[in-house]
């Protein structure tokens, strides 16, 4: 079901991008190929023979309004550089200067690496002039929304790979620790201690089953704010619960309850990420974190328990169906 939701969101985003890009092309929002009139100031006077020389670029608000068909605020001046070569002159805005839209979008799509707006320029100036008029033509910009969606998809794909590689070591470490605990009998000890407390919440799990121990370790890691440690323990707990599941393609009530408790777990120790961001300031949030997570945990348990009794969910309970099939046999 989640795959269909993601596919629908992607289709809607592409449709939105196509509609907006079509409107931009129709209205010529970025004035592709149309030169923009600007004023150019030379602090040291204009030198026709200089390869590069610093300039100040001034854009009049009325000229910007007339060019792009919408008000772009007051007149502004940007630092820049004039580059002259045999092929012609090029006017470059300084890197990372604050540009209004749509100039900022033109820069991001035409000079992503250097982040400096630039374009061929035609200059009207004589040697030694400190002020001149010029026109600059920027590179054409099309399908901005489609490019943005594609770029976001690639960036998040890189992020996903980075996160996955970062978790490999952590998950391998904790799974190894769990294996040692299982072989040494520590899991059985944990089961005996925690079973009286968790039995009312997970009545479907047989007494002494390893799933109970994995659930305890998973919940303990969540309570202590060890999210990376809780992940492999939660996966292992789900694997143990799946062994008890007679219908492998449908989650049992115990699986749903574990997922609800994980999502709304009590946090006695603030998450490591918050500690890294806020430092000692996290102490002010200790009580609110405990209260809010305790309330969310209570609501999660009650909601899962109530939904178990709803007719449509009760009828699809794998454990109930398995018991009925066993009785008939």
Describe this protein's structure:
The protein has 329 residues and is of the alpha+beta class. The protein folds into two domains: 36-142, no CATH class; 187-320, no CATH class. The chain is 56% helix and 13% strand. It has twelve helices and six strands. The protein has helices at 2-27, 61-68, 103-110, 144-184, 186-198, 210-223, 227-243, 253-263, 272-278, 286-308, 311-315, 318-328; strands at residues 36-41, 52-59, 76-85, 88-93, 118-124, 131-136. The protein has a six-stranded antiparallel beta barrel. It is elongated, with a radius of gyration of 32 Å. The mean pLDDT is 82.
Q: Ranges with pLDDT <50 over ≥5 residues?
A: none
What average pLDDT do the residues reach?
82
Strand ordering within the main sheet: 1-2-3-4-5-6
Give a count of the beta strands, DSSP E runs of length 2 or more: 6
Summarize the structure.
With 329 residues, the protein is α+β, with helices and mostly antiparallel strands.
Which features characterize this protein?
329 residues; alpha+beta; 12 helices; 56% helix; elongated
SSE map:
Elements: H1 2-27, E1 36-41, E2 52-59, H2 61-68, E3 76-85, E4 88-93, H3 103-110, E5 118-124, E6 131-136, H4 144-184, H5 186-198, H6 210-223, H7 227-243, H8 253-263, H9 272-278, H10 286-308, H11 311-315, H12 318-328
Helix pairs in contact: 1-4, 4-7, 5-6, 6-7, 7-8, 8-10
């Amino acid at each position: 079901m989640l795959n269909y939701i993601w596919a629908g969101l992607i289709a809607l985003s592409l449709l939105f991008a196509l509609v907006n890009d079509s409107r931009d092309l129709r209205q010529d929002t970025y004035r592709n190929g149309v030169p923009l009139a600007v004023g150019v100031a030379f602090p040291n006077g204009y030198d026709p023979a200089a390869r590069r020389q610093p300039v100040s670029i001034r854009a009049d608000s009325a000229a910007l309004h007339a060019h792009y068909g919408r008000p772009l605020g007051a007149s502004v001046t940007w630092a820049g550089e004039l580059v002259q070569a045999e092929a012609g002159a090029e006017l470059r805005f300084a890197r990372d200067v604050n540009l209004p839209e749509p100039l900022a979008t033109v820069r991001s799509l035409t000079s992503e690496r250097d982040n400096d707006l630039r374009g061929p320029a035609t200059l009207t100036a004589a040697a030694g002039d400190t002020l001149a008029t010029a026109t600059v033509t920027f590179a054409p910009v099309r399908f901005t929304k489609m490019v943005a969606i594609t770029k976001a998809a690639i960036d998040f794909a890189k992020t996903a790979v980075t996160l996955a590689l970062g978790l490999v070591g952590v998950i391998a470490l904790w799974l190894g620790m769990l294996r040692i605990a299982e072989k040494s009998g520590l899991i059985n000890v944990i089961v005996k201690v925690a079973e009286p407390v968790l039995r009312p919440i997970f009545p479907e799990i047989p007494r002494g089953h390893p799933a109970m121990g994995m659930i305890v370790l998973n919940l303990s890691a969540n309570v202590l704010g060890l999210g990376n440690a809780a992940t492999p323990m939660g996966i292992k707990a789900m694997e143990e619960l799946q062994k008890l599941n007679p219908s492998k393609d449908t989650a049992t009530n115990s699986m749903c309850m574990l997922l609800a408790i994980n999502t709304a777990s009590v946090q006695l120790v603030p998450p490591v990420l918050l500690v890294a961001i806020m430092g000692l300031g996290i102490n002010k949030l200790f009580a609110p974190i405990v209260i809010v997570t305790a309330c969310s945990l209570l609501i999660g348990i009650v909601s899962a328990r109530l939904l178990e009794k709803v007719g449509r969910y009760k009828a699809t309970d794998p454990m109930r169906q398995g018991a009925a099939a066993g009785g008939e046999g």
